[in-house]
């Protein structure tokens, strides 16, 4: 049986808030190139459930893995770490 107590959490920036109760969050990570040993930026976009529509573009947010909410949404906005200026 899997350990259900631990869920993945990621920090990213909101790049779109046009959908109702959904925010698109871009998560950036650094990966070392196997041959050249240079660090490369890798970006992923996740559709996250934002139940209060409180996220705006540019906000830094913490998202948590959850059960499937819709076709694309498998993450929830847990907290807004930093509001955009």
Automatic annotation (TrEMBL):
Pfam families: Ribosomal_S17. One of its GO terms (molecular function) is rRNA binding. It comes from the Bacteria. InterPro entries: NA-bd_OB-fold, Ribosomal_uS17, Ribosomal_uS17_bact/chlr, Ribosomal_uS17_CS. GO terms for cellular component: cytosolic small ribosomal subunit. The keyword ATP-binding does not apply. Signal peptide: none annotated. GO terms for biological process: translation. Keywords: Ribonucleoprotein, Ribosomal protein, RNA-binding, rRNA-binding. One of the primary rRNA binding proteins, it binds specifically to the 5'-end of 16S ribosomal RNA. Belongs to the universal ribosomal protein uS17 family. PANTHER family: 40S RIBOSOMAL PROTEIN S11 FAMILY MEMBER (PTHR10744), SMALL RIBOSOMAL SUBUNIT PROTEIN US17M (PTHR10744:SF1). Part of the 30S ribosomal subunit. This is Small ribosomal subunit protein uS17. It comes from Desulfosarcina alkanivorans. The gene is rpsQ.
